[in-house]
Amino acid sequence: MQSQFAERRPSKPEQTGQGVAATADPRTRLEDAITALLPAPQSPLHEVAHFHFSRFGKLLRGRTALAVAAAVGLDDARALHWALAVELMHNASLVHDDICDRDEQRRHRSTIFSAFGTPLAICFGDWLVARSFEAATAAVADGQGGAAFAALAAAMRRLSEGQAAEFTGAPVLTWQTYDQVVGEKTAPLILAPIEGPLMLAGADRHLAPVRRAIHALGLAYQMSNDMLDVLGKDGGAAAYNDLRRRAPNAVSVSFRSLLVNGHRAAFDAWMSSPAGDDIEPWAEQIAATGALEICAQRLQEQLDICRRECADLPDGLRAALSPLVSYLEKATAATPARAAGAEGAGIKWLRAPTAPGWPQRRAVSSSAVVLVAWRRRSAAVPWATM
After folding, report:
1. Which of 20, 154, 193, 350 is most exposed, with minimal Cβ within 10 Å?
2. DSSP code of residue 8
3. The pTM is what?
């Protein structure tokens, strides 16, 4: 089966001992490949698509896919198709996520949902999913690699189920349910750029430790994002957006773990109520307790798991994973430092606590204690020296 992607394959570069050599740096190749498939001017999705890809972002997943593919000797053309598939799927997930969350900004820029409306945002997200599977089809050569194709479909299914869990059933109030929901929503599309090349190249023996490492890393990354949401530093319009939507957030789960008796029941009942703006009393209490400290500690535990699982991987594969892991580790490690310097929305709401049953801790200590805890636990071996 030949797809439109197969028709756009670049001219074949010179062969090397490790598959096919690239003719340009990974970022340029990915940008060119994405640009080549954008809708033509007569398409109803032309303006939407070009607005969305006027900035390509870090292309971290695609670049990781290319690096892993090179490490395991996967043919360069198939590697590029797979890298394109995961980047397009990732972008589809962002578009749909913004619709679900009603987010008007992402990284200080209008979302597709806010700029073009819900109908076009849905259509564009679906178009990206379809294009992703076309690219994945081109990566499967002569019927080989069907497991990788199925894994990409499973990643999107798991992500959709994880996203849907935010809007159905009981709120996420415990670490067990948080790990389940986040594991489905965040980890799959961090794993896909690594899992696919391993499967396509027949390097399945590395899948188990890689999956465990990326699951832990995905949890840590989401916890970092949750902390930034509380601090108002995640690029959204306001702090505590997750709390306002009653959405899963590691800081909220940490806060609940500190509550006892009737106060925990009151928080549970409030989290089960319809979303709204009546968040200030709870936001004050979250900022005044050790919830951020608990988050920082659990985040570090997940990073430690990731390091242990990656330690025994072959040098070439670990080097290929290094940009992704280092970026996510850097992003998570920066969160406590930002908390320590925060003068933002979470801190400015603080007043003396009055509700009975919740831990009495000076409000000013919440950010400082995070940095102290982080520094105490941050003697772990850097990725580059593992």
Report:
1. 154
2. T
3. 0.76
